[in-house]
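Mods, move this if it's the wrong board.
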Amino acid sequence: MGMPVMAPPDEISTSVFANRVDIQWPGASENASCRGVAFYEVYRNGAYVENVQTYDPVFSDSTVAASTHYPSTIYAFDYDFNSTGDSISVVTPPIGSIDARETGVRPTGSYWGGGGEQIDMR
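Not the wrong board. C-alpha cells:
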C-alpha cells in the first residue's frame, strides 16, 4: 500500500502570537495505492502533542511560551497506519509585540485574504 502525501511545508499556514500558535494545512492527498487519510498527528520538539481529525486540519496550541523556537512536524496517517510528515519551524514573538499583518483593502487593490490565506477578522 502507498502512503498519504502531505502538502509541502510552504502550504502550511501559521499564525503566531506570544501565547498561542495556530497551524492550518491543506488536507493530505492520496496516491493510487493509499486507502485514504485517517488522521494527523502534531509533534513539537519531537514529542507528540495532539491528534487532529481529517475534516478540520487545524491545530491551536496555547501552551507555548513567548520568544521560543518550536520545531514542529505534522504527520498524515492512512488507515493502515502508514505515515508521511512535513516539518516547519515556529518562533513565537516576545510578549507585547504587535502583529505587523494588515487587514482590509489596500490602495493597490490587494489585501490580506485575497490570496486565499486564512485570517481571523475578529
